[in-house]
Design goal:
Layout (H helix, E strand, L loop, with lengths): L6 E5 L3 H12 L3 E5 L3 H20 L5 H10 E4 L2 H5 L4 E4 L5 H12 L7 E4 L6 H5 L8 E5 L9 E6 L5 H13 L3 E6 L6 H18 L4 H12 L5 H8 L1 H15 L7 H8 L32
Parallel strand pairs: 1-2, 1-4, 2-3, 4-5, 5-6, 7-8
Antiparallel strand pairs: 6-7
Length: 301
């Protein structure tokens, strides 16, 4: 059981950090979202408020509970000040080993004794990341899924030093915010990222080869396999720059079956990252809504 007065720090105000901060604040925990970019923090806070207000409009959340969640959320630009005395830190910064190590090194000395240090990495080594702190046994991978407020799964990733107490407490944290956790031994791509990367890469090969249109490939996975989102839609949501980085890592560690499709490389070089840039496999309007019939077709490649 996690005490309700436990304080959580989420580092990184990007898409995942925003969703994770919402999950903890909405579940009753004082939550501090940290980023060195003030504009990113403002956008993240506005997004979290919008999710809460959307829940009220849909009748899924009482107005007073939404207001309480907003009050539990705060933002800061200074990591040490935010992390001091916190019981859980979740870092969601860029997939760069040096950056992640720097965050953990700075925060580890001021967290509460025995605090859990979690990394949301989907590809990097938890063991390597944990080597940057004095107590690597309390470091664990806590891999959330986007959009966090809808996706119920969290992969808990064990580094070589992660101990049983850290696993038990991390599972309790997941239960406290309504998530189901699975345990994964450290491996390139974990379980879901490995499968998702291969699925998205194969979908892009099919698109490049003219097997079917983007809309039809996505429809096939939604309607034929009950996936909530097609692999090309998901790539646009995640960002093809992120997908390419993961694929290159998996290709280097697991071999040829993860060689990135040339179309992904071409799109990233053109700045077509997906929803966040307004154009990926599909185009998006200023509100982030997909433009109908805008999917790439073989004839356009």
């Amino acid at each position: 059981m996690i005490a309700k007065d436990s304080r959580v720090v989420v580092v990184g105000a990007g898409l995942m950090g925003t969703g994770i901060a919402h999950a903890f604040a909405a579940s009753g925990f004082a939550t501090v979202l940290v980023d060195s970019n003030a504009e990113a923090l403002a956008r993240a806070q506005a997004s979290i408020h919008a999710i809460l207000e959307g829940g009220v409009k849909l009748g899924k959340l009482a107005p007073e509970l939404a207001d309480a969640a907003k009050a539990r959320l705060s933002t800061r630009e200074d990591l040490k000040g935010a992390a001091e005395g916190a019981c859980l830190l979740v870092e969601t910064v860029s997939e760069n080993l040096a950056v992640k190590k720097a965050v953990l090194t700075e925060a580890a000395t001021v967290l509460a004794p025995g605090a859990i240090i979690a990394t949301n990495t989907s590809a990097l080594s938890v063991t390597e990341i944990a080597a940057s702190v004095p107590a690597p046994e309390r470091v664990i991978g806590m891999h959330f899924f986007n959009p966090v407020h809808k996706m119920k799964l969290v992969e808990l990733v064990l580094g070589i030093a992660t101990d049983a107490a850290t696993v038990a407490t991390s599972r309790a944290w997941c239960e406290a915010i309504g998530k189901t956790s699975i345990l994964v031994n450290e491996s390139p791509g974990l379980t879901t990222s490995r499968m998702s990367a291969m699925l998205g890469n194969e979908a892009m090969w099919m698109l490049q080869e003219g097997t079917a249109s983007a809309e039809d490939i996505d429809t096939a996975l939604r309607m034929g396999f009950n996936h909530p989102m097609g692999p090309l839609e998901l790539g646009d949501l995640t960002g093809w720059d992120t997908r390419l980085s993961v694929l290159r890592y998996l290709h280097s560690t697991l071999g040829e079956k993860f060689r990135p499709c040339p179309l992904i490389i071409k799109m990233v070089a053109a700045g077509r990252y997906g929803r966040k840039s307004g154009h990926g496999v599909y185009q998006y309007d200023e509100a982030g809504q997909r433009v109908p019939n805008s999917g790439l077709k073989a004839s356009a490649l």
